[in-house]
Write a structure and sequence with these properties.
mainly alpha, 3 helices
């Protein structure tokens, strides 16, 4: 019984290692000539980075502290 268990564990490890090491040789999903589609400006989170930087600055000034969009501490200076 112990021999069968040992063989089963060894076979399982061999299969797991074969599958995991075989994944290293897989070619990328995105071909080099298709990567320009991912760099399209429509894929960005903000369309106008200058405007979003300005609105970010206004939001920080309104809150009274830098990092007011989720950082620790408050606008009163007490952390």
């Amino acid at each position: 019984m112990a021999k069968i268990l040992r063989v089963f564990v060894a076979a399982s490890l061999f299969i797991i290692l074969s599958v995991s090491l075989g994944a290293c040789a897989v070619k990328p999903w995105v071909k080099p000539y298709e990567r320009s589609n991912l760099a399209d400006p429509i894929m960005k989170f903000d369309r106008n980075p200058v405007e979003s930087a300005y609105l970010h600055h206004v939001y920080q000034a309104r809150e009274g502290a830098r990092g007011a969009e989720g950082g620790a501490g408050g606008g009163c200076g007490c952390n």
